[in-house]
């Protein structure tokens, strides 16, 4: 039987990846890591044949493109052809599938599961893919319709890319809420039901930012509760992380829009996120970028960037708004009391020991004064945003 099969055909099957639901964030990786893929060379070859003729890499590029088009067409079943070395195809198939999915993050991250089979005759092969998606083609069409209408109202012709990103961020976090039942995963769910998990936030962010003309990706990784997804966006040649889910905190009781995870560098996001794939490096602080743009532009541009900086709360990173430790805090409090100021606000550089340092700062002020202090974490840098009301006797 082996001899007959060797002369007639190579037939092998790969069962691709069925993913479980994460315990907290409900993120299901759409592009599998190599460790999760059944190896063609180790597991998938049922019958082996002699190697065919060598093939140029361009044939793999063509195969990758056709597979990507099949996934993007949202077909339940599609086939593509390949001519060339069957053993080389076997060895490269994992990376070809992965690269095909990476061509369009939206299709990749609504993919629920897939399997493919390869049938070969000589050096001619047919790859057939069967796929299941979390969002149908009709649902995606509805998502596109709503997004187009929303962007037409949201984005003004005079907006620059910085303002577009903020407008899209603010719209999503005020129109979508986190699905604590871990049931809804798509941009369609986010728009039609008003709720989704991190995967849906990332998909909607991806589509809206892309349609607004930005270069954007979906990133995946882990946080303290498990697997997670967010966006990366390119702005003025620099890449930044944008976590819409974590800027829309579960259980928030106020109506403020949060920017703790807005356009973060690798260093800033790495405090509580880890990414499990290679992504463009995010090396630049967005606050620094805004300061440079304001300094380099004309007066009108400087004003726009200054306003944006205030809206995002990035002014608290400036040295004049930052208190670095207990000694500087005491000096600030004494100066405020001496001037009979009614309130002070600042960023305290570290949350550790702040309550004790604040109590000590009021000792020896020489004036009968009461105070009420409120403070909360600022961004991801372990600092605090502090406001103090002063009442004189």
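-> sequence recovered:
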């Amino acid at each position: 039987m082996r001899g007959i099969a060797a002369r007639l055909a190579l037939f092998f099957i790969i069962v691709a990846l069925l993913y479980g639901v994460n315990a907290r964030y409900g993120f299901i990786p759409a592009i599998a890591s190599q460790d999760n893929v059944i190896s063609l060379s180790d597991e998938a070859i049922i019958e082996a044949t002699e190697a065919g003729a060598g093939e140029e890499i361009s044939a793999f590029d063509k195969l990758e493109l056709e597979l990507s088009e099949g996934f993007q067409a949202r077909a339940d079943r599609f086939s593509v052809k390949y001519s060339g070395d069957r053993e080389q195809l076997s060895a490269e198939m994992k990376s070809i599938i992965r690269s095909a999915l990476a061509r369009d993050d939206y299709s990749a991250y609504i993919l629920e599961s897939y399997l493919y089979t390869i049938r070969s005759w000589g050096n001619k092969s047919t790859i057939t893919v069967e796929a299941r998606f979390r969002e149908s083609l009709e649902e995606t069409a509805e998502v596109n319709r709503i997004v187009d209408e929303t962007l037409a109202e949201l984005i003004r012709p005079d907006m620059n890319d910085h303002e577009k990103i903020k407008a899209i961020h603010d719209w999503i976090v005020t129109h979508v809420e986190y699905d604590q039942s871990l049931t809804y995963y798509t941009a369609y769910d986010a728009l039609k039901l008003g709720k989704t998990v991190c995967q849906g936030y990332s998909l909607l962010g991806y589509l809206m930012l892309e349609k607004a003309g930005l270069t954007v990706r979906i990133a995946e990784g882990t946080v303290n509760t498990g697997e997670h997804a967010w966006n990366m966006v390119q702005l003025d040649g620099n890449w930044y992380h944008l976590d819409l889910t974590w800027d829309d905190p579960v259980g928030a009781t106020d109506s403020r829009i949060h920017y703790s995870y807005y356009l973060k560098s690798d260093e800033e996001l790495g405090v509580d996120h880890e990414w499990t794939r290679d992504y463009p490096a995010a090396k630049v602080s967005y606050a620094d970028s805004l300061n440079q743009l304001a300094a380099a532009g004309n007066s009108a541009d400087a004003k726009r960037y200054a306003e944006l900086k205030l809206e995002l709360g990035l002014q608290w990173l400036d040295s004049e708004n930052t208190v670095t430790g207990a000694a500087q805090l005491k000096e600030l409090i004494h100066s405020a009391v001496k001037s009979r100021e009614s309130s002070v606000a600042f960023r305290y550089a570290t949350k550790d020991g702040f309550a004790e340092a604040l109590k000590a700062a009021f000792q020896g002020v020489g004036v009968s004064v009461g105070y009420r202090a409120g403070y909360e974490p600022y961004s991801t840098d372990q600092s605090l945003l502090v406001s103090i009301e002063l009442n004189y006797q």
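The mean pLDDT is 84.
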